[in-house]
Amino acid sequence: MQSFIQQVRKNPWLSLIFAVFSGGVVFYLSSYLGSLTNCWIKQFVALNFYTANVFMKGYMLLFSLLLILLVNKGSLRNYGFTKPEKLRYVRFFLISTGILIGAFIFANLIFNGILRNIFPPGSGKAGFPETQSLLQRILTIWIWSSICEEVLTRGFIQGFMNKHINIRFLKLSLPVWISGLFFGLMHLSLLNINMDVWFISFIVTNTTVIGLLAAYYREKTKSIYPAFFVHFWANVILTLPLIIMKFVSFNSICNT
């Protein structure tokens, strides 16, 4: 088994196929088992979009860790679970913030501004469902989703392909491209919850940028922990306008 895996890892295209196929299996198996678990849990506890996702992401984390252990002789070594190397933290924070805000503004202008007005979507919602509380958003999206999705994309997928960082396009390596694109395309699953095409395009564009940025720092520092932060901080930035609007609206009601 290990000899077969090592042979696959040596070939860039075989490693790409294996990593993407295995990642896809993890994603869809997690979704399926998450749905079954939600159906059972709903008999006892009410679930919404955010709390229901906790189980799916939990399966994703479990299967991703098992895959890493399977292909790496029972160890997490060399799959990013180590202290970052040569990371200038202030520079990292400022560059990440600038890129994430820039991507958010650009994608919002293109999809929710220009294209939405030129080609109005026929159906679907332009936004995520409301959360019951800010704490629920922090725990389920900002923290839990960031951890589980990063272990799959920057842990397993990028880690498995890491031998091929010499193959580059536009200065980014093949593992960075595949990890980032896989992460963005995962969010096409939002089509299943009745969101309109332009909002989903906005999300997929943003998550692709987030994925590429997280993958870049995963490669640069040889650690998955900066990728965790990029993902977490992106979720904060993307939802901060909604939180500010709700806060302003609440203050307006209180002052009338």
Q: How does this structure look, described?
A:
By secondary structure, the chain is mainly α. The chain has eight helices and two strands. The radius of gyration is 19 Å and the shape is globular. The protein has a two-stranded antiparallel ribbon with strand order 1-2. The longest helix is centred in the last third of the chain and has 31 residues, at 225-255.
Give the tags:
256 residues, mainly alpha, two-stranded antiparallel sheet, 8 helices, 2% strand, globular
Strand count, sense and barrel status of the largest sheet are: 2 strands, antiparallel
Query: Can you tell me the overall shape?
Result: globular
Give the rounded overall mean pLDDT: 90
Provide the helix percentage: over 70%
Alpha-beta classification: mainly alpha
SSE pattern, N- to C-terminal: HHHHHEEHHH
State the strand order across the main sheet: 1-2
| Number of strand segments | 2
Report the radius of gyration as a whole number of Å.
Answer: 19 Å
Strand content: under 5%
> What is the terminal-to-terminal distance?
69 Å
Question: Number of DSSP helices?
Answer: 8
Number of separate domains:
1
Unreliably modeled segments: none
